[in-house]
Protein 1
Amino acid sequence: MIISALYKYYQILASDEKSDIPLYGYCSAKVGFALIISKTGELLDVISLKVEDANGKKLVNRQMIVPEQVKRAANISPNFICDNSTYVLGIDNKDKPDRSKEAFEAYKDLHNRILGSSNSQGAKAILNFLSSWNVDEARQHLVLKECLDEILEGSNLIFKLDGEKGFIHNDLEVKRLWEQHISEDKDDLIGQCLITGEKNTIARLHPNIKNVKNAKPSGASIVSFNAPSYESYGKSQSYNSPISKNVAFAYTTVLNYMLSGPKQKVQIGDATTVFWAESPENIYPDLAAELFNPFFTQEGKEKNVYRRDPKIENLVKDILLKAKSGSVIGDVDGVINPQVRFYVLGLSPNASRISVRFFHCDSFGGFVRKVAQHYNDMETVKEYENQPFNIPIWKILSETVSPKSNNKEANPLLAGSLMRAILNGGLYPAVLFQEIMIRVKTDSEVRVNYIRASIIKAYLIRKARIKKIQKLEEVLTVALNEQTTDKSYLLGRLFAILEKTQKDAGNDTLRARYFTSAMTTPSAVFPILIRLAQHHIAKEEYGYINDKKIELILKDIDRFPSHLTLDEQGVFTLGYYHQRAKLWERQSKENSSIKEEN
């Protein structure tokens, strides 16, 4: 299903004139330098092809479409034209000169076989260069002197013919010979492809998938069989899951295409997540990226390096407002078809392979409705006006990690289960709620903030809705619920008012000392807190205001329970947060009025 969906998407992009996805026999690779050679093969100059990174802070290798590169480990296996200095120049910084010479000879032999019959000037220039290049004197070459260290770091090199436009690997004759070469492999196994059902050449190895966080930098496989225990019926390697070469190329190429930049990729915990629609239009991934990962600022610092078009941000807001009001997600601006198929794929590193953390298929309209429901469940009154309405998934996960922990990564299993809950509209993972409640109990400086309150509310309201717990659902509102008589919620409200009472009297230790015990064993703590509050009220000029608030809540509490369940502790926390937000709101209005009067 996954490979089939990726293969179909590759076909859609390959047939689109606006797409720059590599065609069969080619790939996108990072290239650092171009070697300028004469028609006789003399190395005349080296030019850097490096470009600024997304932050504009440093130079990085340029992504270019080059002939498809081979999959290699420790073996010597040259690429056509585009390769590193070990193969192109016969030198590297690995202190293995004999192996480097062997690699250069293999590179030269490959090009003699492919380009030997060519009349192209560029092809002849490469052959002349390889035949005349002296590996032993390469390090002393004057042209290489200034950039030798950078070249030896492993940058890919390509060729350019002096006085000609473009690079030699793009020469029509060179491309024709390359494509002829890859179609003439006599060792090919013919079989029925699992994806297309057609008889074709079967791929022995599938190309590597790159840019998955924490996977090998050189890439890793989704499909691989590297031990006899994984094989069956006498078949070796990927012949155990027969997929034709063109399908293997297509699905890995389009996956690497999406993984190469931030447009169709977000990081969710340890899962590098890509998404696509069965359409060549950019509007689908643009909207999905903003839905998954809305722009987020905190303390004046932008957490996302990549910010999308403001038009997309505004369009997402409109779509979410429509979804929230119950409107059907219809054709938006004549561009979005809600019936188009949409896919989400989460990939995580697993030793030498890449594992699938989650995979989801839905209509684009269905996907939007599910995400809109998630944001609707998360909606909670904000502490500050500049806080975002839609909280990114990465920020939800980060709240489960202790601020004192050296490891800032969230539980890897949590990311996958959270995504599945969002995409399927099911229950949020219990471990998410448990981890947040642990943070509420143990982080004495910041027990409850906007994001934690939103997570608690979302978990409980979805649980109440799916399991039809009407009493619980009625309690969980966006802002302060002054109508509910739920004891856990009232106790949370009461604690917030008691805290405010103490603070007005010039003390602010209640939360740090008593919050956890108040939410777990109310009967052991609240009588003490109420007695303390009377002392604070007596000291404060307007203490009678807080006293009245305490009295209004206590009239609905006949007794303090001996303990609260974990769900009740969540309701307590939400009641505390809502009441505190209301108190701050009133105080902010009062401060604003004073400023206006002055």
Note: The longest helix spans residues 566-597.
Protein 2
Amino acid sequence: MQDETPHPAANDTHTSSYAGRWVARVRGKVVAQGGTPEQALRAAQTTRHKEKPEIIYMPAPFSLPPLIDRIKGLLPPEQEICLVGGAVRDLLINRLSRDFDFALPSNGISFARTIARQLQADYMTLDDERGTGRVIVTEPDDSRIFLDFASYRGDSLEADLRGRDFTINALAYDLRNDTIIDPLEGASDLRAKRIRACTPASFSDDPVRILRAVRMAAGFGFQIEKNSRELMKQAAAQIGRVSPERLRDELFKILEGPKPDASMRALEMLGVLPHLLPELTELKGVEQSPPHVYDVWTHTLAVLGELENILAALRVGYSADNTTDLFTGLLTLRLGRYREQFAKHFAESLNTDRSMRSLLFFAALYHDVRKPQTKTFDEEKGRIRFFDHDEQGAEAATERARAFNLSNDEIQRLRAIIKNHMRIHFHTSRMEGEDKSPSRKAIYRFFRESGEAGVDLTLLALADLRGTRANTLTQETWSACLDVCRILLENYWEKPEESVAPPRLLTGDDLISGFNLRPGPVIGDLLEAIREGQATGKIETRDQAISFAREWIKENPNGTRNT
């Protein structure tokens, strides 16, 4: 080998086709190429074994983020270090990344501490055993960039890369000489939009990679290579070896990302569901009466897809001119004025590791989970019914959420969504059939039962309706549901003090001292009755609240007075 240093190769007419590759040249002519210097040399020797080729690197046309350039300037001249994995992949396809992984021969933790000091950034140890430290850089806008420094997993950089999950993540960028190391042809798979396992043992070594492959395929719009799909099927039964927390994290990333319906269908086809979400396997083939056009499982997937479309149409910056779909146009017309409020709702979080959006999609995934167990046939009406599937579904979803170690706040929100997901459909039927809008009492009780989940319920109801009727949905039914949702959201966001959360006129102490009542549940019952009276417009002043309390006590004398 004559030369392994990068060259601009300005005189080579094929430079662009070899960008990011190592090439072997003989007398100025490219005779072989590879993802590493060694591969280029071996390829050249098969045809030019008597000649000594020149091995050079053809630069790839991308620019490094300023922070990475800054880190390069801090490196000791002799330091062997590479940017690796997804960050290199994202650079090659011009995607913005805020997570950067670095690999070096040893001392990842001490090196990370040094970089943290030099950048005046925060530091934390991620993995003592594997020598991994994290540097957290906080930007002026309070956003954060994560820099992970890890010692090689294996005896060399190439061994480290070959032990990774997918070839498009088995890429390295050498910070010393600005070259790419690509032993598994990951860049080629990246150009072909293909996800391919690094080794036949990739999925059996770590079965959570099955979920990751599905997530990446949806996120990038890539296809999973056929042999890798077969390996995923073979390893599906080993999902149970993975900790619930890792499975949860990958699942919620799938639900947060694009095409959650296609992703869940892929997991079903790969045989993953029985080992990940066993309750959902029973939904397949469960028949439903009209207006449902699908079985329960297909309906569930349709709801995920419709929910994604609805959220996209209600995002800040969306223009109604972008659609020719009548139903989406009506959606933006009726609810588009709440784009900022929806954005704020989903910007809030019940857990720093998971978004409100992903929790809503998890609720959508489980909203009909107990239909198989509650299925009955009404002989008189000739209809399939699912009585109490909402209540029972909330319990089943809670069990799964606890198995995944979701927080109590997340579980409470999940329960509220699934338990109440039929309420808007009831009001939609009344609106369409009887032209009756939700009353102030109904609005108050809806939000009393659901709280902040009421916002999620409007979106789920709309997706549920479209996922129920598909192309049989009429403009009249859709408009009725939109009107119900608009009324609910209008009260919640524009006049909450009227019918959602009226200001308290009396306290528990007022009732105890003013009416000689003893403390107990009755105090809460009376306060709630007063508040509902305010929401319905029957009580507007403190004096009216006192008069109401006096009459209420007369009608409910047992257990109210001190003795």
Note: Residues 22 and 57 are 4 Å apart (CA to CA).
